Amino acid sequence: MAAEAMSVKDVPRNYIIEFSIVMLLYVGAVWARPWLITHAGSGALALAAKLAPIVPVWLMLVVVWRYYLRVDELQQKRLLETLAISFGVASCIMVSYAFLTDLGLPSLAITWAWPTLGATWLFVGAIRGLVER
Question: Quick one: which of 14, 119, 21 has its CA closest to 71?
Fold first, then answer.
């Protein structure tokens, strides 16, 4: 649906639906990836299995960008502020965790970057929503 034809009240709902679908694709691709790699053998299918999570990562960017273009200037400002704060928090969490591995915690794959950012984005957005009430 074109952005200009979409009702303002439908923008958040459509964003949540689009983002949820893409996040499920990402989680599914990450979980299925090891099995697919093991059973794909070599060649094009193995390459596709190894690269499968890349597609939903980029689709997440597209979904957020589409939302950004559909909302008004105030909502754009709030989105960018929330993203900036959550990016800072997620970055600190991930770097801190890297040092905590020296204490015996298991190393985490970089695939945890998106879920970490998503969780901090949700948390920061919820806190900001409560504060702005």
Answer: 14
Instruction: State pTM to two decimals.
Output: 0.76
The Cα 48–Cα 71 span in angstroms is 35
Give dist(CA 63, CA 96) in Å, integer: 29
97-112 residue pLDDT tens: 999 999 999 998 887 8
Listing DSSP states for 76-130 in one string gives: HHHHHHHHHHHHHHHHHHHHHHHHHGGGTPPP--GGGHHHHHHHHHHHHHHHHHH
Non-local CB neighbours of 17 within 8 Å, separated by 6+ positions: none
Q: What is the pLDDT of residues 15-62, one digit of tens each?
A: 999 999 998 999 899 899 999 998 888 888 889 989 999 999 999 999
Angle between helical axes of 10-40 and 54-70 (0-180°, round to 10): 170
Question: Cα 11 vs. chain centroid, distance in angstroms?
Answer: 18
Question: Does an H or E element contain 19, and which?
Answer: helix 10-40
